[in-house]
């Protein structure tokens, strides 16, 4: 009886083994079939994704080119019209000066002309202040080639060498950049 039970157990195992072999063969066949059908659909899916990505890439490249063109034009316009703000301040002064020059004057009007010129000068000073334009007026200062341009030298025993004895024309600084150096006469005693 023990032998019969062993045989019966062994027969059950054989049945299970053969069933397992069939299932594994079926499972092996299915993934191969599934992988073929899945890979075709995956390929189609990847093609669609690729086409979308490629289209997005082309659009992005076109957008970058458009941004470059727009930026270049904006820089050109900024350069081209960079002095517009200061010109809007200067034009009224020019118009006033033109008007004063067009009027015929007699000797009694010279005081009015001088008064008008002082008003124009004050208008310029306000513009300079508004746009951070400062004057370089270095009388009795040490000569500095960054801010001054010597047009002549003079002997003066009362002053040290390289001291500015006369300012011929005032210089100008915009923010921290010299626009026009002051034209000066410098002491040289040697």
Q: What topology emerges from the helices and strands here?
A:
Layout: H1 2-80, H2 84-102, H3 110-130, E1 133-136, E2 148-154, E3 164-169, E4 171-174, E5 177-180, E6 182-187
Parallel strand pairs: 2-6
Antiparallel strand pairs: 1-4, 3-6, 4-5
Give the number of helices.
3
Radius of gyration: 46 Å
Terminal-residue CA separation = 138 Å
- Cα shape: elongated
The fraction of residues in strands falls at 15-25%
SSE topology string: HHHEEEEEE
Total beta strands: 6
Largest sheet: 3 strands, antiparallel
| CATH topology category name of the domain at 134-190 | Nucleotide Exchange Factor Grpe, Chain A, domain 2
Can you give me a brief rundown of this structure?
The chain is of the alpha+beta class and 190 residues long.
Task: Provide structural commentary.
The chain has 190 residues and is an alpha+beta fold. The chain has a domain at 134-190: Roll (Nucleotide Exchange Factor Grpe, Chain A, domain 2), CATH 2.30.22.10. It is 63% helix and 16% strand. The strands form 2 sheets. The protein has a 3-stranded antiparallel β-sheet with strand order 1-4-5. A 3-stranded mixed β-sheet has the order 2-6-3, with no helix packed on it. The longest helix is centred in the first third of the chain and has 79 residues, at 2-80. It is elongated and about 100 Å long. It starts with a helix and ends with a strand.
